[in-house]
């Protein structure tokens, strides 16, 4: 494929922009002028409707990018940097952007030639003058273009860059200006509210200001010479872009470590060679005075990106540039430091992690204008500007903002932002980051919409549906949807490790939807009405009976699915009550008996027989009693063994059972140590902390907390409760109330992907009156041996993966299968076993029937798409759902160039990739829920035959539009087709027909 962009002709650009007034360049427009009649802000002696916009970068490289940003509400445009090295001469490694969390890039200035860049900016300027009037989006004079140039004085004074600057100061003499002017005059019929006089009065003065970008290591005198040249010779308002290195290596290293970014690798090299703070202050003062004498504005832009080493193959090369939320603490710290140095009397423009969560605060602190980049690279894309614009409109309407902030900047506000960010989850890195997990298969060519939460759930719950029902407070119906696949909504609503949230696309916004909590909300509010509406248990539809050994989550789930389908089921449980580990082991501070009993109340409605207090030793005895099918769901209840010289630790399951039975009335001494890193270890530690007389509880683990198997919320709970963690320690022996441990260090990754612990010579001692071992419990191997059920060499049960069958008509489910797992995986096992048995009995699980008009259920997408919004309480949380089951379009959102297009084809959204607009930045790859790169795998429209032939993408080149003759590549095979007679692949044919009928301006782009 071609990794060089082809600029759109002005005709194609305007046809596209005028195509759909409701979604201009894929962005829902916001009309600023409807709320703000007069631009309230001033900058560079120009009017400005909104004080924010896209930073110099991928979002200001092409004309359509700038239009998309404007439509979303942006009004200040920092144009992509130009330098003498440009076009094909500029080497840019691809992919060049990674923005799945904090962002990195390896690109710098525009990939276009300088004349092409100038033409793009002039086209964008002219287009905004037209579109603002046609669509009544804002004051045609209410936006500002800001040039960005680099990187040394020789280059900036070169004829190429000089022509660029002068051409934007006055574009009237340029060829592209005449092209735009002629198009507008010839297409007045397409431009309502515009007449000839308006067109002729469009100002050719595209930009009167420059943001100076210099390379790392640029000497102070060179920076001063460039700034002096721009102020005196070019007579432009000038801001210089400052580097975070002004803060010094020690401050930056310690701050990033404190906020969870210790893994970022950088040394003092750039700090030693970049402009120093004590050099910057007098330089800036001199430039301020010079600008004042000339009647111009001089200030600083905070900040440039920050260079870090590439150590994990994030991007190609050796060094990449950091931006986004991890850059914010550096940028705001530098803003604070400069504000203090200048007593607030320094104009400061801000970037570096600006988004909807902080932009208003930054503005109120006196930072202005403010530009964004990373937030726009994430799902929602340019639409994220809409939320920011609405925030400013509301502030203006309520008079909490009155206009341009005046100097001095508010030093105290900046200090407060600097202080609070270190504990703000929006900027700090979680202990165990959980970026959405990709599905290990490729995206389909068409119909790629998918609900990642559903696919990430082991039982594939219809999470979007029950979330919508919760949002509408239809709790009974929501619980019907949940219990269709999950008979334990209280247990899973409280204890589930909620893999669904790892796949939730909200993680790319701020934090996952609280799916587990929504399930519990439905269960609490819907159970009684659901029980009331249930009829009599299903009648038995076959003679074969089922015996289930074990009344924990796996056994209860298998019983439920079978009984609901009409089978005669009996559950045998050795304890006096049902619930298994959840009832007898997991502490009540994690789940109440009331919640457990609520699930059992629901299970009891399905006609299942329960025999509690009965231990089954033989599967043959059950067969002899007339049971045709047997399900063994006895869990993993044999304690794992830990050998310590001098003592045998107390097994965690035994301790937790004692704790629950005695309600914490135990004698553990003053100091308790728990060995292990899973959820059971955390449970044991938190339980021990509650025992009277215990002063300290310490978890000892041979790796670091980041590699503990425990769920992150369990780790956070332990930390908040004062549990101590001794990381990188391996217990060796016990002597005189001291646990002797060997210090470890992390080496290379092992098969699990975790860093392998390597022993060091250092030995330390920890006070320990009681030691609890939580290193992994095992199955009862004796039971299986006595019942002639084969085991693996590792002591686990051998089973058929497609059915969980171990011997004819004998099955296993739950923890007994592979050791301690999760409740939801136990439910999945129960369903798999049930489905196998039902198939053999030629029975089917009853389908869900909802007695509700779904048209009355509000779809949440329109109200939250592109909106950053932290977790809510109760049913309001459900309104944060993005509705990914109905539309995805992530690759469309996150493409700065608009190279991925969402087409409506027969009522469904289909994605087409526009090869000519793509520069292979790779950003869409990070956000596709599949293990795919949309720019390489989606159906591609090619601009030229050469591009088609040099690519392997599936797609087409339009040979002749009139006859609908196409060159097509499908499934790796090339062919020439006549679309009018081609009768293969009906969905693809419909897509191609739509493309050729409604999107002709995208064919042969730039011609």
Largest sheet: 6 strands, parallel
Helix run count: 37
Strand-residue proportion? 15-25%
Count the E strands. Answer: 34
How far apart the termini lie comes to: 19 Å
Molecular shape: globular
The average pLDDT is 94
Please bin the fraction of helical residues: 25-40%
- Unreliable segments of 5+ consecutive residues: none
| Class computed from helices, strands and strand pairing | alpha/beta
Q: Order of strands side by side in the largest beta sheet?
A: 4-7-8-9-10-13
What integer value in Å does the Rg equal? 32 Å
Keyphrases for this structure?
six-stranded mixed β-sheet, 17% strand, globular, 1007 residues, 34 strands, six-stranded parallel β-sheet, 37 helices, alpha/beta
């Amino acid at each position: 494929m071609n990794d060089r962009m082809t600029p759109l002709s002005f005709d194609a650009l305007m046809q596209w922009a005028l195509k759909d007034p409701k979604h201009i360049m894929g962005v829902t427009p916001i009309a600023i002028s409807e709320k703000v009649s007069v631009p309230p802000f001033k900058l560079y002696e120009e009017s400005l409707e909104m004080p924010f916009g896209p930073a110099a970068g991928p979002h200001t490289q092409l004309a359509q990018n700038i239009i998309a940003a404007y439509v979303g509400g942006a009004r200040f445009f920092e144009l992509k940097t130009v330098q003498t090295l440009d076009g094909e001469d500029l080497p840019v490694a691809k992919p060049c952007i990674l923005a799945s969390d904090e962002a990195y890039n390896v690109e710098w200035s525009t990939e276009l030639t300088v004349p092409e860049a100038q033409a793009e900016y002039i086209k964008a300027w002219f287009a905004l003058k037209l579109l603002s009037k046609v669509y009544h989006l804002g004051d045609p004079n209410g936006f500002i273009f800001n040039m960005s140039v680099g990187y040394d004085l020789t280059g900036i004074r070169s004829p190429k860059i000089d022509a660029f600057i002068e051409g934007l100061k006055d574009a009237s003499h340029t060829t592209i200006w005449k092209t735009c002017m002629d198009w507008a005059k010839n297409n007045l019929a397409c431009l309502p509210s515009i007449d000839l006089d308006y067109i002729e009065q469009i100002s050719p003065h595209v930009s009167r200001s420059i943001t100076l970008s210099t390379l790392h290591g640029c000497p102070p005198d060179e920076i001063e010479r460039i700034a002096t040249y721009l102020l005196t010779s070019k007579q432009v308002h000038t801001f210089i872009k400052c580097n975070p290195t002004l803060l010094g290596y020690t401050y930056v290293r310690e701050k990033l470590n404190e906020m969870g970014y210790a893994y970022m690798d950088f040394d003092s090299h750039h700090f030693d060679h970049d402009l120093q703070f004590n050099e910057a202050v007098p330089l800036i003062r001199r430039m301020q005075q010079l600008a004042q004498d000339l009647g111009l504005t001089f200030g600083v832009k905070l900040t440039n990106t920050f260079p870090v080493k590439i150590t994990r193959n994030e991007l190609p090369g050796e060094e990449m540039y950091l931006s986004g939320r991890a850059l914010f603490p550096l940028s705001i710290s530098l803003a604070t430091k400069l504000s203090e140095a200048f007593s607030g009397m320094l104009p400061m423009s801000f970037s570096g992690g600006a988004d909807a969560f902080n932009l208003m605060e930054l503005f109120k602190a006196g930072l202005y204008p403010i530009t964004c980049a990373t937030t726009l690279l994430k799902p929602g894309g340019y639409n994220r500007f809409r939320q920011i614009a609405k925030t400013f409109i509301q502030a203006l309407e309520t008079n909490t903002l009155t206009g341009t902030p005046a100097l001095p900047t508010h030093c105290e506000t900046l200090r407060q932002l600097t202080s609070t960010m270190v504990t703000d989850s929006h900027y700090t890195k979680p202990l165990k980051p959980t970026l959405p997990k990709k599905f290990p298969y490729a995206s389909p060519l068409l119909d790629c919409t998918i609900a990642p939460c559903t696919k990430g759930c082991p039982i594939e719950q219809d999470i979007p549906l029950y979330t919508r029902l919760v949002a509408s407070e239809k709790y009974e119906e929501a619980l019907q949807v949940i219990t269709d696949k999950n008979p334990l909504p209280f247990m899973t609503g409280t204890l589930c490790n909620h893999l669904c949230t790892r796949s939730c696309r909200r993680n790319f916004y701020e934090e996952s939807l609280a799916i587990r909590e929504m399930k519990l909300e439905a269960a609490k509010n819907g159970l009684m009405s659901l029980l009331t509406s249930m009829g009599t248990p299903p009648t038995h539809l076959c003679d074969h009976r089922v015996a289930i050994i074990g009344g924990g989550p796996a056994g209860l789930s298998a019983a439920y699915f079978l009984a609901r389908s009409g089978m005669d089921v009996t559950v045998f449980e050795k304890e006096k009550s049902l619930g298994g580990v959840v009832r007898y082991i997991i502490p009540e501070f994690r789940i109440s008996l009331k919640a457990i009993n609520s699930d059992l109340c629901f299970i009891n409605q399905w006609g299942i027989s329960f025999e509690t207090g009965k231990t089954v030793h033989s599967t043959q005895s059950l067969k002899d009693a007339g049971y045709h099918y047997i399900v063994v769901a006895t869990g993993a209840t044999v304690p794992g063994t830990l050998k310590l010289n001098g003592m045998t630790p107390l097994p965690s399951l035994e301790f937790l059972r004692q704790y629950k039975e005695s309600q914490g009335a135990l004698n553990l001494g003053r100091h308790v140590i728990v060995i292990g890193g899973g959820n059971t270890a955390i449970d044991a530690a938190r339980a021990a902390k509650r025992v009277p007389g215990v002063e300290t509880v310490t978890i000892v683990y041979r790796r670091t907390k980041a590699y503990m198997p425990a769920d992150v919320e369990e780790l956070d709970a332990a930390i908040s409760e004062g549990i101590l963690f001794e990381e990188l320690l391996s217990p060796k022996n016990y002597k005189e109330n001291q646990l002797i441990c060997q210090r470890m260090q992390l080496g290379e990754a092992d098969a699990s992907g975790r860093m392998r612990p390597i022993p060091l010579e250092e030995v330390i001692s920890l006070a320990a009156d009681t030691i609890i071992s939580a290193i992994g419990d095992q199955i009862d191997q004796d039971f299986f041996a006595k019942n002639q059920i084969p085991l693996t060499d590792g002591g686990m049960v051998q089973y058929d993966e497609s059915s969980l069958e171990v011997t004819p008509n004998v099955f296993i489910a739950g923890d007994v299968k592979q050791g301690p797992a999760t409740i939801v995986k136990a439910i999945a096992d129960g369903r798999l076993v049930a489905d196998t048995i039902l198939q053999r009995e030629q029975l089917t699980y009853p389908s869900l029937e909802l007695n509700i008009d779904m048209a009355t259920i509000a779809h949440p997408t329109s109200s939250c798409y592109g909106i950053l919004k932290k977790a809510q309480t109760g049913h309001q949380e459900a309104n944060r759902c993005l509705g990914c089951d109905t539309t995805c379009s992530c690759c469309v959102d996150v493409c700065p160039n608009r190279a991925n297009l969402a087409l409506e084809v027969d009522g469904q959204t289909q994605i087409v990739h526009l090869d000519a607009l793509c520069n292979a930045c790779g950003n869409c790859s990070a956000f596709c829920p599949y293990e795919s790169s949309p720019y390489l795998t989606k159906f591609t429209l090619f601009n030229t035959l050469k591009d088609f032939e040099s690519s392997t993408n599936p797609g087409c080149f339009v040979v002749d539009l009139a006859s609908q003759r196409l060159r097509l590549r499908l499934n790796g095979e090339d062919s020439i087709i006549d679309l009018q007679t081609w009768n293969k692949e009906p969905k693809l044919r419909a897509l191609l027909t739509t493309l050729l009928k409604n999107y002709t301006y995208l064919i042969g782009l730039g011609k």
